[in-house]
Fold this protein.
Amino acid sequence: MDVLVVGDANPDLVLRGDVRPRFGQVEQLLTGADLVLGGSAAITAAGCARLGLSTTLLTALGNDMFGAITRRHLEDRGVQVLLARPETDVPTGLSVILAPDDDDRAILTLPGTIPTLRPEDVTDEHLADARHLHVASLYLQPGLAGGLADVFARARAAGVSTSLDTNWDPAERWASITDILAHTDVFLPNANELRAVTGEQDLDIAAAKLVATGTTVVMKNGAAGARAWSADGEWSAPGRTVEVVDTTGAGDSFNAGFLAAKLAGLPVAEAIGWAAAAGSLSARAAGGTAAQATREDLDPTASRPFSER
């Protein structure tokens, strides 16, 4: 496989309109609702597959309706699903996303099977079959987080490159992150995550601290696109102008764009352009996967024979 993605997979119930709850049995009328594929790892995996990468998702699902829906969504998008263990009676996780008619949103999550992944679930056999290992939603999976440094060290020893998107730590402790980043080739935070992980408010200083340890930092920069820092320099790339319907999963599609570019051999300066474009384009439809970028969206030469590129 090109990419082994490890992490969360679950349905997202996206509710739009008048979504700020008013208790007292008040009934509110919505403008839209969609049940879509959710989980940072799952959306990233779907984005990688859509961009032409052979992609496997290692995850945990329950033996329930939400587990079946999640697996079907993934397989429909060309992602091979690898369960860490047989489906159990633990319910599949679920996120309810409240999206009012502005740029804000709130997320309610039932963890379910999401925290059940463990470091030992990523076996040497899995790593032997992969070119790249990506881990997402680290702090929704504390059991995995505690041993991820060893997993990444094993991956590197096997010649497998590594990337990490922690997402936000609800406990704001950022446990084990220093040890993990010591074995991480690419760290994919947003600005707030980069500040929190390093304890630095200035983004350039924060990135420099991580680059000094050997990590390339690729930061999601909202509507402005992307910024990146490595030992070779620093770069920025703009996003694309689109009519925004839903920003759910845009950061995960960003990850997929970057990974597709890097695995195609592009330098960081070009890869962040793919990432910024992929993140922007994913916001054109409800949910994280309905409008994910294709290779042709990001690479104008993709549809032409190699002799003409």
